[in-house]
Design goal:
The protein is mainly alpha-helical and 92 residues long. Helix content is 65%, strand content 10%. The chain has one domain. The radius of gyration is 13 Å and the shape is globular.
């Protein structure tokens, strides 16, 4: 089970599924992903992330991001593009 996330700067913080869900929701909003499908997308991705990393206590934020984007590429490419555009705007 994911207990900690190692941030880009090396700091470690407790894993917060709600923070992850907010990031997915923001990308879905920016992509104008259909509102009636948004919550299902967010919830299903959260379950996939938690399941994928179930055997790890610590995960880097980059690993989580990359896994989410890989999943979004397959099921909601406009959302993954919006996420990447946001990252590019922030210089990440």
């Amino acid at each position: 089970m994911i207990n900690f996330v190692i941030k880009r700067d090396g700091n470690k913080e407790p894993f917060d599924a709600e923070k992850m869900k907010r990031a997915i929701a923001s990308a879905a909003h920016n992509a104008n992903f259909p509102l009636d499908k948004r919550q299902d997308l967010i919830d299903s991705l959260a379950v996939k992330v938690i399941g994928h990393f179930a055997d790890k206590e610590e995960v880097t934020s980059l690993e989580i991001r990359d896994f989410i984007l890989q999943e979004l590429d397959a099921i909601a490419p406009t959302v993954s593009m919006a996420w990447r555009n946001h990252d590019n705007e922030k210089g990440r």
